[in-house]
Design brief:
The complex is a heterodimer. By secondary structure, chain A is α+β, with helices and mostly antiparallel strands. Chain A is built from 21 helices and 21 strands. The radius of gyration of chain A is 38 Å and the shape is elongated. In chain B, strands 1-2-3 form a three-stranded antiparallel sheet, covered by helices on one side. Classes of the chains: A alpha+beta, B mainly alpha. The interface between A and B is large, with 44 and 53 residues.
Chain lengths: ~625, ~375
């Protein structure tokens, strides 16, 4: 073998070893890769399978339509209106500008709108729809659909918005809806959806959960950019339930037409506490909340001294005046501070220490018993009675009639009002004098009562049962508990006491000399029993009195409020009503006639006892009032 | 005895038909199988259709096959003679790209020649192997030990590596260096010199790190912790592992790869084609493909061992290592074992440049096999 050959052999030998080493090393590395595959696919395979599923699966919630609010007759008071929107999907058109150009010919777009649309198109991913315009009219929607071939990328989408058919007439009762805020988040995933609304006030708020329903869910397969490929699974949700109110929308509208600003009328079914109407002026249009309340609108509302946003029937606070005297009378009877036939003399004033308390009737009424005292609304009688009974017992009786305590009505924010006690006053660091008690005997002083509580008081007087006012008749078609008269507990007041007071109230309206005689019901309708009240807003000084100051010559804001409460028919009470006319001057002059008109209409519309709508409520047992004297 | 055998072999005909007989048809079959795997994968990547990937892949492979067989028939000695011409061509193309290249994906790597996009860096690796093989051919053991002898080939490796690095293409330039290293190693360069290089690299690494582009540094960071940037640079690795891992043992089934089909897997027709395969065919499929590719590489080494001349041996080792590095870097990247490298899987991934150059390489490999018994002297004559 030559040297060259030996060299070659040597190199070849070394090469052989090294090549083998290299080869083995490479195979080893490939083996490592095989190991990696095993690790990923077998050891960790399940974990990755889960991640892969998470990648491609997306769950979306389906929002069910919100339940409607209906009135007593099934008329839709709060409903869902289809809101047609025109949407643009940039991916589906080759030229966004051209499409918008064509669209402008059909529904004119302003330059600002076009600028906004084009801006949003640039910002978002190309398959995400951009809202071109909302609240299209049916005609606009139809025209767009008709021209669809010329409008690539434009599609019409339908959503729902809340619509209040009666607008401001039932605004205080029904309330309104708005997008949920932080405090509304209760963990319901439905609230995360765009366009979802929660009740912000009134029935919409109280029954929000029932109206809302429950979200359904759909499971979608999506790709890496979130585009939906197909639907994998769907679970339907629960539709929002309809809420039926006890209120009659037509009656409500009619009553609102009769009243001025600052007036509240509460009409109740005395047997079961259902509210048939709760009207105040002024009110607001809840439909405005759909598209957002502008700052200007808000300023207008809050600047209005007549407070359109506030429901005066539930939140207006007034001293009850003489309408409170029945409570004092019953407190006196229960405390045996007076006998029904006992005569108390009214010379037109009562002196207490060195303060003289006047009766509204300057000459005085002479001697009178309780019935006459109520019928003529004598102040001195009740000063005396209050003095005998004491404030605390008067307050306790008042509470049994639903005054100064929270009521069960389904309107969030309703004020319970205030009936003072000595303890309450002393807790304020001020003393309670006998003179205070005396004044409170005629319904003046620290009282703060709502027209609703006055109507409740009247209903309880009329039936002897502790009815609670409420607005809901049925939810989702199922009647709400407590609709029957027997469901309400008795007040625990002796029947003869109640009868005495009711009789006196009949006299107020129907007897010669009664303070509300001019407002009695037409005979073909029936008879009503009631009580007038006039409450001072501004004290009249002795000086002014001596100068023969005439109340009706005062500026409006100084004039007393006019109140009237009543129930009818007297034999078997069906309706209880309270009327408060701010600055109405005289209960008998302003409030009583209004109550009469309201009751007349109520009888005509609802026809109790003749198979009319009010009769559909479970019949109450006959009222124990004996037939009254003509 | 050996002398007689050599005489016999020399007397074997060198006509075309004899050469055709010598072509390793089993290897050709292996390559067709690999390309077939590519077709299947690309069919799925294309959304269940030959368009737009699988069909073109098949056509390109056909073309590559013809080219490969033609090169196989070329006499190895001819190839050796033009080794340095080829090398110069490669470097020239790299320079051309640096000056005029089409900028794509933020890197100057391609040249547009009519309808074909050529990646000179791919071709360069082949040419480098050929040149190195010719340099070390017929060198004696002593000469190989002489450092001066090694300077020209070192420069020959560094020049293209630097040009590629500047493109910028960190991954391929490192691969180039490794291929050079493999040939040096197989040629018999003394082992202590390799230790020196490793030491130098350890020292130079921080310096190199400084000069890296941001995205290259990001690759290292996201490699070490892909979760740190799950929507950006780490996204690819995370998605690849999810897709791959979710394939499980048997895979999700042909065309049923949810991650790939829903576009969660990026570049599924190029860099991540193996992931698609593994997702749809599971561990079973993945290991099968890996085995197939290992066979191709092993065959290269087989050719090397059976070649009678150093040129053929070094050529084979270099080309086999070249293909190995494609396979390893791609699959390691796809399984999250190394920082993303952006290297395709030739004959499986979509893309003509890698396939063509690899087929050229295999053509050379087959030529080495066909002419394994050829008598080759050196240009410099006997040492």
């Amino acid at each position: 073998m030559s040297r060259k050959q030996r060299e070659e052999e040597r190199v070849r030998g070394i090469f052989g070893r090294r090549a083998l080493l290299l080869g083995a090393g490479q195979m080893g590395l490939l083996g490592f890769l095989a190991h990696r595959l095993h690790t990923l696919q077998v050891d960790e395979g399940e974990r990755y399978a889960t991640l892969a599923e998470e990648n491609r699966l997306s769950a979306r919630l389906l929002a069910p339509p919100r339940g409607r609010v209906l009135d007593r007759e099934g008329r839709v008071v709060a409903g869902n209106q289809l809101n047609w929107r025109a949407l643009l999907v940039a991916e589906q058109t080759s030229d966004v500008s051209a499409t918008l150009e064509t669209l402008t010919k059909i529904i004119p777009l302003t330059d600002a709108e076009r600028a906004r649309i084009e801006r949003e198109v640039r910002r978002r991913r190309r398959f995400v729809p951009v809202v071109v315009r909302e609240f299209l009219s049916w005609e606009e929607m139809a025209r767009i659909e008709l021209n669809a071939p010329d409008l690539p990328g434009i599609s019409v989408d339908v959503g729902t918005t809340r619509i209040y058919a009666e607008g401001e007439h039932l605004a205080h009762i029904v309330g309104y809806v708005a997008p949920p805020a932080e405090r509304d988040m209760d963990g319901d995933p439905l609230l995360e959806l765009p366009g979802i609304r929660v009740g912000r006030a009134g029935i919409e708020r109280h029954h929000d959960l029932a109206l809302r329903g429950r979200a359904g869910a759909v499971q979608l397969e999506v790709n890496a950019v979130g585009r939906v490929i197909r639907e994998l699974d769907r679970r339907e949700g629960v539709q929002g339930q309809d809420v039926q109110l006890s209120v009659d929308a037509e009656l409500q509208k009619s009553i609102r037409g009769k009243i001025e600003e600052g007036t509240s009328v509460v009409l109740m079914d005395a047997r079961n506490g259902e509210l048939l109407a709760m009207a105040t002026q002024p009110s607001f249009d809840p439909n405005v909340f759909n598209s957002g309340v502008s700052a200007a609108q808000w300023r207008e509302w809050t600047a209005n001294r007549a407070t359109p946003l506030i429901n005066k029937a539930t939140n207006g606070l007034y001293a009850p005046g003489s309408t409170f005297k029945m409570v004092v009378a019953l407190a006196g009877l229960e405390a045996r501070a007076v006998a029904p036939g006992e005569r108390i003399s009214c010379p037109g004033y009562m002196d207490l220490g060195d303060t003289r308390f006047h009766c509204w009737h300057r000459p005085g009424h002479g001697g009178m018993d309780m019935r006459t005292g109520l019928k003529l609304s004598c102040d001195v009688y009740f000063y005396e009675l209050a003095k005998r009974v004491g404030m605390d017992r008067i307050a306790a009786m008042a509470r049994r009639f639903g005054l100064g305590v929270p009521l069960e009505i389904e309107l969030p924010g309703t004020r319970p009002g205030l009936v003072p006690t000595r303890e309450w006053r002393q807790a304020q660091g001020k003393p309670w004098a006998l003179g205070d008690t005396v004044v409170h005997g005629i319904g003046q002083g620290f009282y703060q009562l709502t027209p609703l509580s006055l109507a409740t008081m009247t209903a309880r007087l009329a039936t002897g049962r502790a009815v609670q006012p409420h607005l809901t008749r049925a939810i989702g078609g199922r009647p709400v508990r407590g609709v029957r008269a027997e469901d309400w507990p008795s007040l625990g007041i002796p029947d003869r006491d109640l009868r005495l007071v009711r009789e006196a109230m009949w006299a107020v309206v129907n007897e010669q000399g009664g303070t509300a005689r001019a407002a009695r019901l037409p005979p073909e309708i029936g008879t009503m029993a009631g009580k007038t009240g006039t409450t001072q807003v501004r004290r009249v000084s002795r000086e002014q009195r001596e100068r023969g100051f005439r109340v009706d010559q005062m500026p409006r804001e100084w004039r007393p409020h006019a109140l009237f409460v009543a129930f009818a028919p007297v034999e078997n009470p069906v309706f209880a009503v309270s009327v408060v006319v701010e600055h109405g001057t005289s209960g008998s002059g302003a409030a009583a006639p209004l109550a009469r008109d309201v009751l007349v209409e109520a009888f005509q519309r609802l026809r109790p006892g003749q198979g009319g709508p009010a009769a559909r409520v479970a019949e109450a047992p006959r009222s124990p009032i004996p037939p009254v004297r003509p | 005895m050996k002398f007689e055998r050599r005489l016999l072999l020399r007397e074997r005909g060198t006509g075309v038909f004899e050469k055709l007989w010598q072509i390793p048809w089993v290897f050709v079959l292996l390559l067709c199988a690999v390309a077939g795997v590519g077709y299947v994968a690309l069919y799925s990547a294309g959304g269940g259709a030959p368009d737009p990937y699988a069909g073109r892949h098949a056509i390109r492979f056909g073309f590559g096959l013809v080219m490969m067989l033609s090169i196989a028939l070329v006499d190895i000695r001819l190839i050796a003679r033009f080794a340095w011409v080829g090398y110069a061509l490669g470097v020239g193309l790299l320079v051309l790209v640096a000056l005029h290249g089409q900028v794509g994906k933020g890197a100057q790597r391609w040249i547009d020649i009519g309808p074909v996009q050529l990646q000179p860096s791919e071709l360069m690796k082949i040419m480098l192997v050929v040149a190195l093989a010719s340099w070390f051919h017929k060198a004696s053991w002593e000469r190989i030990g002489n450092p001066l002898f090694l300077i020209p080939p070192i420069i020959a490796v560094l020049v293209p590596a630097a040009l590629i690095f500047k493109q910028p293409n960190l991954g391929t330039s490192l691969i180039t260096l490794m291929i050079g290293g493999a040939v040096f190693f197989a040629a018999g360069v003394r082992l202590w010199k390799f230790a020196l290089v490793v030491g130098a690299v350890a020292i130079a690494a921080p310096i190199v790190y400084e000069s890296l582009h941001d995205y290259q540094r990001a690759r290292i960071t996201t490699f070490l912790d892909p979760e740190s940037d799950p929507l950006g640079a780490g996204y690819n690795i995370i998605q690849s592992k999810i897709a791959l891992g979710s394939g499980g043992f048997w895979g999700k089934g042909f065309l049923q790869g949810t991650q790939g089909h829903l576009n969660f897997l990026p570049e599924k027709q190029t860099d991540f084609i193996f992931t698609m395969l593994a997702e749809e065919f599971g561990l079973v499929g993945g290991l099968s493909v890996l085995g197939l590719l290992a066979s191709v590489i092993a065959f290269g080494f087989l050719v090397a061992l059976r070649s009678r001349h150093q040129f053929g041996r070094l050529l084979a080792v270099g080309l086999a290592t070249n293909y190995f590095l494609y396979v390893f870097v791609n699959i390691a990247m796809v399984t999250g074992s190394i920082p993303v490298g952006g290297v395709p899987l030739p004959l499986i991934s979509h893309g003509g440049s890698a396939m063509i150059t690899v087929m050229i390489g295999f053509g050379l490999l087959m030529s080495a096999h066909v002419h394994r018994d050829a008598e080759m002297g050196t240009e410099r004559g006997d040492s």
